[in-house]
């Protein structure tokens, strides 16, 4: 396409987008979206407990196949896991992670996680961050993507560094250390 014609089209399109709302359900006036961004660092431990009478993670479904007897590929787990200040189970709870993890690694064990990490203490009480990422659990140190947030973390982006603090390979119980950098 000729350059001037392209420019004319861009002009037509951007004028069309600037037209004031006519359907009564949207507006382009959202000043908080333009506020300067902050960087917040969070540090906590995530307790994923599948075992016992009071698990915080439960298997929702697993595939009906015999591909490999020891494979958990395809397993879906729903969680409501406590987040604590220290690694001990008795440490102060600062929030909880709710969502799903799906075992999505066919050859190398890997999870894909769809979780909302909500906080219940201090400045971020009632706010949460949305994490959607693959989680290569066989690597000692790994990174997850923070793709959004609620409350004080509205419009957040960021990343989390994870390190497995404890893992029981028999029942899958795990405690994971998180360092999260949130830009919001
Ligand atoms: C899968 O489901 C079918 C039909 O219900 C059943 O006959 C079969 O035994 C199941 N296979 C496994 C591996 O569970
Ligand atoms: C967190 O917020 C809830 C709801 O507003 C409130 O009931 C609770 O007391 C708050 N907790 C702390 C520790 O501030
Ligand atoms: C988190 O940050 C602290 C302080 O910098 C560091 O000691 C720790 O190893 C980090 N942990 C992870 C999982 O990145």
Helical element count?
1
| Biggest β-sheet: strands ordered side by side in the sheet | 1-3-4-5-6-7-8-9
What CATH architecture do you see?
Beta Barrel
Total count of strands: 9
Find the structural class using helix and strand composition: mainly beta
User: Which value, in Å, is the CA radius of gyration?
Assistant: 21 Å
Under CATH at level 1, the class stands as Mainly Beta
Query: What helical percentage do the residues reach?
Result: under 10%
- Ligand types: 2-acetamido-2-deoxy-beta-D-glucopyranose
Report on the structure:
This is Dirigent protein. This protein has 184 residues and is mainly beta. The chain has a single domain, classed as Allene oxide cyclase-like (AOC barrel-like). The protein has 1 helix and 9 strands; from the N terminus they run H-E-E-E-E-E-E-E-E-E. The chain has one helix at residues 3-18, and strands at 39-48, 57-61, 76-84, 93-103, 111-119, 128-135, 141-150, 157-167, 174-183. The protein has an 8-stranded antiparallel beta barrel with strand order 1-3-4-5-6-7-8-9. Strand 5 (111-119) and strand 6 form a beta hairpin. The chain is globular. The two termini are 40 Å apart.
Task: Itemize the secondary structure elements and their pairings.
Layout: H1 3-18, E1 39-48, E2 57-61, E3 76-84, E4 93-103, E5 111-119, E6 128-135, E7 141-150, E8 157-167, E9 174-183
Antiparallel strand pairs: 1-3, 1-9, 2-3, 3-4, 4-5, 5-6, 6-7, 7-8, 8-9
